[in-house]
């Protein structure tokens, strides 16, 4: 017997565009819902100078995710500093789209590779990064007293 859905699944499409200052309140809300240690308004505002993209729900205009990356032109390397997708919208490919859009922007800046660091307990995010071609290049523990370790992951952009 077929399952009858209470309502039809909503058509889902997102657009990616550069972030602007007016987006910061929605971005801070996603940050609050997704991270324990959170960036503040001023960190995000300063990041508007960097590669800072948002995913926008095409039907509502709401911001559903964001990514921040910076570039070190001397090292010819980009660095993904922050990525999050609103919990209600995770698992729909938005994180993948944001990372691929950031790759395109970093390539436009003639950077050869991109790094990120990720808490080793974040298995879901690590799975996503590996799927997109990142490899673990180093493990580090910033504070010996804290039981916390991170992977540095890297991917070539060319
Ligand atoms: C990590 C994050 C940005 C991924 O966004 P997303 O839109 O859910 O990612 P996608 O839908 O593109 O997922 C792509 C793949 O990664 C997997 N994945 C991503 N996040 C996952 C999670 N938290 N748990 C399990 N799997 C996860 C998906 O299952 C999918 O794999 P599959 O195609 O093999 O099934 C999102 O989970 C998030 O905002 N997490 C909280 C903030 C965070 O941890 N940021 C990363 C800090 S390093």
Gist of the model:
The chain has helices at about 25-35, 40-45, 95-110, 125-130; strands at about 15-20, 50-55, 65-70, 75-85, 115-120, 135-140, 150-155.
Question: Can you describe what's shown?
Answer:
The protein has 158 residues and is α+β, with helices and mostly antiparallel strands. The protein has a single domain (14-156), classed as Aminopeptidase (3-Layer(aba) Sandwich). It contains four helices and seven strands; from the N terminus they run E-H-H-E-E-E-H-E-H-E-E. A seven-stranded mixed beta sheet has the order 1-2-3-4-5-7-6. The protein is globular, with a radius of gyration of 17 Å. The termini are far apart. The site of coenzyme A (COA) has 19 residues, from strand 4, helix 3 and helix 4.
Attribute tags:
alpha+beta; Aminopeptidase; 32% strand; globular; disordered N terminus; binds coenzyme A
Please describe the topology of this protein.
Elements (H helix, E strand, L loop, with lengths): L13 E5 L5 H11 L6 H7 L3 E7 L5 E10 L4 E9 L8 H15 L4 E7 L3 H9 L3 E6 L9 E7 L2
Parallel strand pairs: 4-5
Antiparallel strand pairs: 1-2, 2-3, 3-4, 5-7, 6-7
């Amino acid at each position: 017997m077929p399952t009858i859905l209470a309502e039809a699944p909503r058509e889902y499409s997102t657009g990616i565009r550069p972030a602007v200052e007016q987006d910061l309140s929605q971005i801070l809300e996603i940050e609050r819902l997704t991270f324990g240690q959170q960036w503040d308004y001023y960190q995000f505002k300063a990041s508007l100078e960097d590669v800072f993209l948002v995913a926008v729900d095409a039907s509502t205009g709401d911001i559903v995710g964001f990514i921040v990356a910076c570039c070190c032109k001397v090292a010819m390397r980009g660095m993904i500093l922050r990525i999050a997708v609103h919990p209600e919208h995770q698992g729909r490919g938005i994180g993948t789209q944001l990372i691929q859009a950031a790759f395109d922007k970093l390539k436009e800046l003639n950077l050869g590779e991109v790094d990120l660091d990720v808490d080793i307990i974040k298995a879901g995010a690590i799975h996503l990064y590996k799927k997109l071609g990142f490899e673990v290049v180093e493990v580090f523990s910033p504070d010996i007293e804290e039981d916390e370790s991170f992977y540095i992951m890297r991917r070539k952009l060319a």
